[in-house]
Inverse folding.
């Protein structure tokens, strides 16, 4: 005896079409991507751009009023005016005798009553005390008439200086400065 199965097409349950499933996945993906882009966009909007300025640094050994002081000059050669409260200076010095390197970190506003480093403007450490503070030393560590020279700084010594714009965390100047 033969058993014949009867197929009832009307009793099958219909499923969602594959096209509709793909469309739903695309919609969910687009929504997730837009949420991520909104959050990522807000993260990067708050960063400040670095000012467009050319900065140069000079160190001289015969500066000051009596021409017997070590002085560092920071000059804005042109470009944007930079508020001094937005500038941090890092200075490194390794004596020629091989003793340990010193490092100073300070705000530029510690050296001047000026509110900004304007194009064509120069800000100076003025004397041994200012230069020593820049290098992380005491004023008595710098020589006057070569009577005391704790760290060996003299003419032709090399000081490494980095000037950073604080709000953007970008370097405005980085280089080795030879004491003139």
């Amino acid at each position: 005896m033969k058993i014949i199965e009867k197929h009832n097409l009307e009793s099958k349950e219909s499923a969602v079409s594959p096209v509709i499933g793909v469309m739903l996945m695309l919609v969910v993906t687009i929504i997730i991507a837009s949420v991520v882009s909104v959050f990522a966009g807000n993260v990067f909007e708050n960063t400040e751009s670095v000012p467009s300025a050319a900065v140069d640094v000079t160190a001289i050994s015969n500066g000051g009023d009596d021409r017997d002081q070590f002085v560092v000059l920071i000059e804005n050669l042109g470009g944007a005016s930079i508020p001094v409260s937005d500038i941090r200076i890092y200075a490194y010095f390794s004596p020629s005798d091989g003793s340990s390197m010193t490092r100073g970190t300070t705000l530029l506003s510690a050296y001047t009553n000026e509110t900004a480093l304007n194009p064509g403007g120069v800000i100076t450490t003025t004397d041994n005390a200012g230069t020593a503070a820049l290098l992380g030393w005491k004023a008595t560590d710098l020589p006057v008439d070569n009577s005391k020279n704790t760290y060996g700084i003299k003419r032709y010594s090399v000081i490494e200086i980095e000037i950073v714009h604080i709000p953007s965390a970008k370097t405005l100047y980085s280089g080795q400065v030879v004491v003139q």
